[in-house]
RNA sequence: GCCCCCGUAGCUCAGCUGGACAGAGCGUGGGACUUCUAAUCCCGUGGUCGCAGGUUCGAAUCCUGCCGGGGGCGCCA
């Protein structure tokens, strides 16, 4: 059994076999390609390892009894003699269930080990150039616990898309123009002079701290800007988030990009002048009202530079723009999409992911995140207390569609309520096997020399089942822009690993050598799976804890 | 008033293009370490999937309407 090429996934084999079998039935609406055959993994083990509902789906429109059709299909599949398939049964209203021999999972093990860190990598993105813009916090203060959700999400999404064959860029848009900069500077100045910040200014304690370290001869706006930006870059870096490009709004003024954009819109005939202002007729592109681009006092609104920025992104060759915005900006989506379309692009080439708000609690009491009031939980504080891995994983536990409640006491407590330790522990245990083996002078035989057929323990198979599902999980997570699905998968794999570790000793003298080798390779495959999953999330896993 | 997100176990949340008795962690009750890390594992506890209709052979999942929570609807950013 010395073959080093990766075998075809069983799901592909089965889909092809089903599609082929269906050809003989001459059914209306039958899947034209094997990819269209619906396969699922029954929750109930009695229903087999894989199952298809094609008989149910096709019965009605063909005037057939679903169970009969299923029975005939099952018979055809039985006589086809598919590798690893032990039994083909019909159950319920017309499901065709496949019970597979453990050998199918042994091929999974081989596939994982051979692929290593590339297990689950795909080219579904076909090299599409995708620019992910995220965080983009104003340069008027530190990155706080609310921004961190977008930071963890955006970076994980970028990694996920890269792993799925996209050419990805990460960008941070700096709103370094506008009234908030003036307000920020005025607040710094006030604190530096021992006064209260002005009405509507920034009252956070950090303003006082920053003002204290601001040299007298510095321009507060420029110094504050540089300081805020430096802090943001530093803290995001500590979270393992690095941007390819920090894009300055100011630079667009300097380069004339904003005026060029306005001229472009004018040339496209989508701009009006009314009441002394310049308007984008965004209602023609699905917005619910037209939007002002240049105010009657001659100043740009925030919208125009944003449009210029998106125009620039496309001009730089990005094919798909993914913007990650907080829920408080969701009302802005239609006008941005309208603007993109007004510029002659497909509005579908701008995707805006809205991350719902993070609610922070301490002792069950909400902690407000407000830069202006000053009750601020900074990202830096969180990282200092638990480290970047726990912070990232915490934010990546759930869908960004859901409002998230983060209990700071739990995150900070390093208790086993924090899943990061559960996952890292699984990794540490696997690594300890290698470490202890090395101490004892034990060596593992080559993969092709290992008898993987010895792996038939439920715990062993559970690990392999989990690994088997990674490639499709990655594909789904990428398609849905949902990195939290990787988190869920990693937690499941870690659970399987702990069970395996507990019940299937590898280095014990009671474990026969053949079994030891097979399990050892299983541990290796599991280690690989954890590494791949955690890499996508940007979470590291120490070899020991 | 209009728009977006959410409403699943005591708590925090998963649940793929609708599938076969609804899952995890925490909490709670009880067990398991002379053996590769017990930050682990096992057993038990716990749910009218907000409510009401509809589509379907089949709905937590899709559609409609309510109810509840959050966030938006500026010549602010």
Would you mind describing this structure in some detail?
- The protein has 3 domains: 10-101, Gyrase A, domain 2 (2-Layer Sandwich); 134-250 and 356-407, Rossmann fold (3-Layer(aba) Sandwich); 417-537, Isoleucyl-tRNA Synthetase, Domain 1, CATH 1.10.730.
- Helix content is 47%, strand content 13%.
- The chain is built from 20 helices and 15 strands.
- It has a 5-stranded parallel sheet with strand order 7-6-5-11-12, with helices on both faces. Strands 1-2-4-3 form a 4-stranded antiparallel sheet.
- Helix 13 packs across helix 14 and helix 19 (484-503) runs antiparallel to helix 20 (513-537).
- The two termini are 38 Å apart.
- The chain binds one RNA strand of 77 nucleotides through strand 9, strand 10, strand 15, helix 16 and helix 18.
């Amino acid at each position: 059994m010395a073959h080093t090429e990766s075998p075809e996934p069983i799901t592909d084999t089965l889909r092809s076999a089903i599609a082929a079998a269906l050809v003989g039935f001459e059914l209306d609406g039958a899947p034209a390609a094997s990819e269209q055959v619906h396969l699922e993994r029954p929750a109930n083990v009695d229903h087999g390892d894989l199952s298809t509902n094609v008989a149910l789906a096709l019965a009605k429109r063909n005037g057939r009894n679903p169970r009969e059709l299923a029975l005939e299909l099952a018979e055809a599949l039985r006589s086809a003699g598919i590798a690893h398939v032990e039994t083909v049964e019909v159950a319920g209203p017309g499901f065709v269930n496949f019970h597979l021999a453990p050998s199918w999972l042994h091929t999974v093990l081989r596939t994982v080990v051979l692929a290593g860190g590339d297990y689950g990598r795909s080219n579904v993105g076909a090299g599409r150039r995708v620019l992910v813009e995220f965080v983009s916090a104003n340069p008027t203060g530190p990155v706080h616990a609310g921004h961190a959700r977008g930071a963890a999400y955006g970076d994980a999404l970028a990694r996920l898309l890269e792993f799925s064959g996209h050419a990805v860029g990460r960008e941070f848009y700096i709103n370094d123009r506008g009234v908030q900069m003036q307000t920020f500077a005025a607040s710094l100045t006030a604190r530096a002079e021992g006064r209260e910040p002005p009405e509507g200014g920034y009252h956070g304690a950090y303003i006082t701290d920053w003002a204290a370290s601001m040299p007298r001869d510095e321009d507060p706006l420029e110094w504050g800007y540089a300081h805020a930006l430096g802090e943001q870059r530093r803290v995001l870096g500590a979270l393992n988030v690095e941007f390819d490009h920090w894009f300055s709004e100011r630079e667009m003024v300097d380069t004339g990009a904003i005026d060029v954009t306005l001229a472009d819109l004018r040339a496209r005939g989508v701009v009006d002048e009314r009441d002394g202002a310049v308007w984008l007729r965004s209602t023609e592109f699905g917005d619910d009202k037209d939007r002002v681009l240049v105010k009657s006092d001659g100043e740009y609104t925030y919208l125009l530079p944003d449009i210029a920025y998106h125009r620039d992104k496309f001009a730089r060759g990005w094919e798909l723009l993914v913007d990650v915005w907080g829920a408080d900006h969701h009302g802005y989506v239609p006008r941005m999409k309208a603007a993109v379309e007004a510029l002659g692009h497909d509005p579908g080439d701008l995707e805006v992911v809205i991350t719902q708000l993070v609610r922070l609690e301490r002792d069950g009491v909400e902690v407000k995140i407000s830069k202006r009031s000053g009750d601020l939980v900074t990202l830096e504080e969180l990282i200092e207390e638990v480290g970047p891995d726990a912070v990232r994983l915490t934010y990546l536990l759930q869908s960004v569609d859901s409002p998230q409640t983060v209990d700071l006491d739990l995150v900070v407590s390093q208790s086993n309520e924090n899943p990061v330790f559960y996952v890292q522990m699984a990794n540490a245990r696997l690594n300890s096997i290698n470490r202890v083996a090395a101490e004892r002078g034990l060596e593992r035989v080559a993969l092709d020399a290992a008898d993987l057929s010895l792996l038939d323990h439920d715990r062993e198979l559970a690990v392999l089942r989990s690994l088997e599902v990674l490639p499709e999980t990655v594909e789904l997570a990428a398609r849905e822009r949902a990195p939290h699905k990787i988190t869920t998968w990693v937690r499941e794999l870690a659970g399987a690993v702990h069970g395996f570790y507990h019940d299937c000793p590898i280095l014990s003298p009671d474990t026969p050598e053949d079994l030891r080798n097979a399990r050892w390779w299983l541990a290796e495959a599991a280690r690989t799976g954890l590494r791949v999953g955690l890499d996508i999330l940007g979470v590291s896993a120490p070899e020991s804890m």
